[in-house]
Design a protein that fits this description.
The complex is a heterodimer of chains A (421) and B (292). With 421 residues, chain A is an alpha+beta fold. Chain A has three domains: 127 residues, Beta-Lactamase; 123 residues, Dynein light chain 2a, cytoplasmic (Beta-Lactamase), CATH 3.30.450; 129 residues, 2-Layer Sandwich (Beta-Lactamase), CATH 3.30.450. Chain A contains 13 helices and 16 strands. In chain A, helix 5 packs across helix 9. The two termini of chain B are 30 Å apart. In chain B, the strands form two sheets. A six-stranded mixed β-sheet of chain B has the order 4-5-3-6-7-8. Chain B has a two-stranded antiparallel ribbon with strand order 1-2. Chain B is globular. The chains are: A alpha+beta (421), B alpha/beta (292). At the A-B interface, strand 9, strand 10 and helix 10 of A face strand 4 and helix 3 of B. Strand 9 of chain A pairs antiparallel with strand 4 of chain B. Bound molecules: guanosine-5'-diphosphate (GDP) and magnesium ion. Magnesium ion (MG) binds next to helix 2 of chain B. Chain B: Keywords: Cell projection, Cilium, Cilium biogenesis/degradation, Cytoplasm, Cytoskeleton, Exocytosis, GTP-binding, Nucleotide-binding, Protein transport, Transport. Chain B: Its main location: cytoplasm. Chain B: This is Ciliogenesis and planar polarity effector 2. Chain B: InterPro entries: P-loop_NTPase (IPR027417), RSG1 (IPR039677), Small_GTPase (IPR001806).
Chain lengths: 421, 292
Amino acid sequence: MAVHLVCLTNEGGVPLFTRTKGDVKSLAFAEQGMLYGVQMFAQNHGVKLESTTTEEAKVIWQVFHDSVTLVLVTSNDGSCDIHYKTLINHIFHAMVMFIGLETLVSIRTVEKLRREIKVCYPVIDTLLQDTDLYGALSSSVDVLVSAENTTLQEPLEAFVTSAESTFGCLHADGKLVVATSNWWALSGQEMMLVAKFIQSLPIGTSSDVPIYLPHASPKDPHRLLSIHLQPGVVVSVLCYANPTLAEAEEQLIEPAWRLHHEALRAIQRAPSSNIPRTIPLDAGILGYVLLNTDQHKCLSSVRLPLIAGGAAELKPLPPYARREILTAFYRTVVGGLFPPSLSPERQDSSGEAYKCLPHSAEETYMCGDDFKTYALNSGGFQFFVLFSSAVPQYAMRSVTKNLLGTLSKEKIFVDRRTKSS
Amino acid sequence: MDDDRSKWCFHTLGTYINHDDWHKTPEGKDYFASILRHGKRRVFGCLESPLTLVPSHLEQPKIMKYKLCLVGKTGVGKSSTVAKLCGQRVPTTHVETPGIITSVTYWPAKLKHSGKHVMFRLQFWDAGHAVQRKFDHIHPACREKAQAVLYFFSFIDRSSFEDLRTQFSKSLSNEDTPLLVVIGTKYDQYNRSEITSRELLDFQKQWQVPILKLKNVLKPTETNALLAGDSCAEIDDVAPVMNTLVEYLWIHDQVLSGNIELSSSPKLNTSREEETHSASDRDSDEDEATYV
Ligand SMILES: Nc1nc2c(ncn2[C@@H]2O[C@H](COP(=O)(O)OP(=O)(O)O)[C@@H](O)[C@H]2O)c(=O)[nH]1
Ligand SMILES: [Mg+2]
């Protein structure tokens, strides 16, 4: 599925950049101009053009702050517009994160902006790619479940405090493991975008990068220090002038983390199911997405191991197929039946199908030739489970409910946010 | 520019540190094993070090830490060079570096005179150009206490070489005296070179700095061969450059601490040039052809 993204100035339609996904050429200048022109024509006639559908493709337009126009051309999977808009919204806020809102709202020189905007490409490209992580789709941060979620809290707090900050977190392979209460209080989109950025850093590096938090601080940059403690395990802290990267690395890391090598190694070896080994899993489960809609945390895996002799083994589905099915299922159910979990700043969720239901939907399922899926919306959680087609229909509900009951009690779902007064 | 700074630069390479494929000798292999994993370079986090991996029956090497600051125009190949020297895959497209990114690589070596082993720990400080312009703290942070500054130009970008000349003719601060090294990237494209060998020699004479020529990007098949399997082909490939770099760093240290006398007249060692290339291109590139 090819995707085109075009970014232009809203005034004049000067192209700022384009990105693509898949083996395709970027759109010709004339095509970009046409996409802009249609939208401008509507704007001039007092009409807001939001999206259109062709036989194969979907085109989404969005103008941000009357300054930047983003156009997304992608194949149409029949799901609600909300998911395309979520993606375009993430892309704009990734731009804010690296270059700040002011630079984007009052564009002085296009040439300079074009140069500056290049730093956003890695994160924007990750947002366009297919991934095993569901955070971007659900505007929440991907989390890792491990017995170490609590033991690593203390060294993290010690490290962040020593760096004169209250915003800090630890990621493993792109998933959040522990964070300070102020970090958890950021929006799902902010936590997700920072996680994507940290995942894009070359392995083994330490970095000091100016970051604008898209909602908490879109105009004032902070320094995000990210240090690989072990390959794939990164501690980050958000600070002002102090400490320098060298000070953080040479003076603050050792005292805080020295005694925690084993715990850090344990999260490196976390199981691919992203579920503690102590929790028994039904052999028919191939993958799942568990969302805490209030705290914007997303726990997922499409790499549940096949259990020998289990039902799923008869017709194994490779991880990429599991990912595609779960993604399609999520996109159909959310917006269609379940409410989407958006950051509170979003105001564009009008007219979604789920709002027309006479009651709020709590469960749904879908059966394909080689899979079955089940979804639950209950108690602040949305839970999407992919089963092997060998699992009988009547079993899905109780298996899903039981697993949700167990997983929702995991420590990672304890609400650690600072309460804003 | 103080005159004394670089006279030692042209000590014959290999005087202080074993070059000649030391990493292939049984002794060298034992030490190199600590920075490898299944034939590929091991990545170390901030809390880790290869010292714990050096077999206990061997002489434990002393760690020598260096901070190297990278300077040069956007797109010359700074980030690619870091990836190459750290044994990582070199990205084929330019990615603008969003801030400061530091990378550490370890390199074992044997000192010739004492026969002692050392483990060099090089930390490269790379920062994006756009972000340096926008934020004042970035460049000073990279320069602070750096033992070496690596100046980059690209063989296929004349203006990057001109930039270098301007940089060098600006007076350099005298407070610290880092080692200066010039790195010319994209040497694999030397048939499209926009800089003549004459100009390079003149530059080298004028500023008394070593110039290393690098090929970071190989044909995809060559890259795959280098990074494939358990062969140590990747180490073979970067060894000449790494050995050169660590020897210069070590000599610079020794000169600053007064352990090595400055040779009174700088001696241009012609064989040195050759040693800075990858082993694979020895035959092809020594012609004095004027490019442009
Ligand atoms: N052919 C060739 N390309 C190179 C070489 N070094 C870097 N490049 C390419 O030059 C571009 C810019 O490199 P990069 O390292 O990102 O530049 P930086 O801005 O200085 O960090 C990338 O597309 C690299 O693939 C080289 O030695 N040979
Ligand atoms: Mg770079």
